[in-house]
Amino acid sequence: QGQLVQSGGALVQPGGSLRLSCLASGFTFSSYVVSWHRQVPGKEREFVIGMAISESQMSYTDSVSGRFTISRDNAKTTAYLDMRNLEPEDTAVYYCEARHLSTGARYWGQGTQVTVSS
């Protein structure tokens, strides 16, 4: 059975940086589009940033433009979210997602808390 296991959440000060990791197992990770989402209490989960399989295309929400970067290492079956210049508004539980565009198969990570506060 496929799964995604996340790591890297933490408490950081405004302006700080953080890297989240998402380790995949049990499915062909290289055939899946990966993305990161976040959710705060009382609100719906929102898309943050995503990357195509070819790694040539990236999409992201405007609020993270120039600050967040997504990457993947297919050999390590791991996706990363690099965040810099963090703001208190970035505080949320972050989730990674892997999705197969043809079959619709989808996996979610367990979520990891990122708190930006002084």
Structure, briefly:
By secondary structure, the protein is an all-beta fold. Helices cover 0% and strands 50% of the residues.
Q: How would you characterize this protein structure?
A:
There is one protein chain. With 118 residues, this protein is an all-beta fold. The protein is 0% helix and 50% strand. The chain contains no helices and eleven strands. Strands 2, 4, 5, 6, 9, 10 and 11 form a seven-stranded mixed beta sheet that branches.
Key descriptive features of the protein:
mainly beta, 11 strands, four-stranded antiparallel sheet, 0% helix, seven-stranded mixed sheet
Q: From N to C, what is the helix and strand string?
A: EEEEEEEEEEE
Q: What's the overall average pLDDT, rounded?
A: 94
This entry's quaternary arrangement is single chain
Rounded to the nearest angstrom, the distance between the terminal CA atoms is 40 Å
Rg, Å, rounded: 14 Å
**Roughly what fraction of the amino acids lie in strands?**
over 45%
Q: Which structural category do the helix and sheet elements fall into?
A: mainly beta
Helix content: under 10%
Instruction: State the major sheet.
Output: 7 strands, mixed
The shape is: globular
Number of strands: 11
Number of contiguous helices: 0
Unreliably modeled segments? none
